[in-house]
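Input/output pair, single chain:
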Amino acid sequence: MSGGQGGRLRVEWTPGSDLLTGICFCGARRQADDPVEIWRWLLAHHEHRSTSE
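Output:
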């Protein structure tokens, strides 16, 4: 899925677990076991800093 400003949003699954990592095109990351939570965070993430929140 494409993010704003021409970037990409990604969700990666950690094999052997229920853990998902959402990665914004700005480099910010968030981990959760709920895919809805990850996608809500990615779609609402708007500050696009290169640090994790």
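The chain has one helix and three strands. Helices lie at 35-44.
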